[in-house]
Design brief:
Blueprint lengths: L1 E5 L2 E7 L4 H12 L4 E18 L4 E23 L2 E11 L5 E21 L5 E5 L4 E5 L3
Parallel strand pairs: 4-7
Antiparallel strand pairs: 1-2, 2-6, 3-4, 3-6, 4-5, 5-6, 7-8
């Protein structure tokens, strides 16, 4: 992984064999990022995404392996209990153009992944909402 920060924006290249979520955490911690929007594209060969089942308050995940292009990688970096917290979604297309996606659990880069992190001023904390079963934005902190 390598990156360059230019004022309020980080351009990052995540390399073959690296896991996207892990590398985003490294960048955010090195740069002191507490609030940002994230977007990206690239290629992966092993990824797990989930769908939240509201009636059961849990994620069901699917793992995919093969040749995939990232159609969309989007999300936020915030904090929870003062610590780094990323919420990302990713969709990927296979060789036939079928697209699979959801809440990103993990993704291993097969060629390269280009990520843009737009750093925002301030902090948005998260808190667990028991009624929904998710960590949601908390604007009271």
């Amino acid at each position: 992984m390598d990156y360059r920060r230019m004022q309020d924006t980080v351009f990052a290249r995540i390399d073959r064999g690296e896991e996207i979520q892990e590398q985003l955490r490294v960048i955010a911690e090195r740069e002191g990022i507490r609030l940002a929007s994230v977007s990206g594209l690239g290629a992966v060969n092993d990824f797990t995404v989930g769908v939240f089942k509201t009636d059961r308050k849990q994620y069901d995940s699917n793992t995919f392996t093969g040749y995939f292009e990232i159609v969309s990688l989007t999300g936020t970096i915030t904090t929870m209990d003062g610590q780094y917290y990323a919420h990302l979604h990713m969709s990927c297309g296979d060789e036939q153009g079928h697209v699979f996606g959801g809440h990103l659990n993990r993704a291993v880069v097969s060629a390269t992944c280009e990520v843009v992190i737009r750093i925002l001023e301030g902090t948005v904390e998260r808190r667990f909402d028991g009624d929904i079963g998710l960590n949601v934005f908390d604007f009271e902190k």
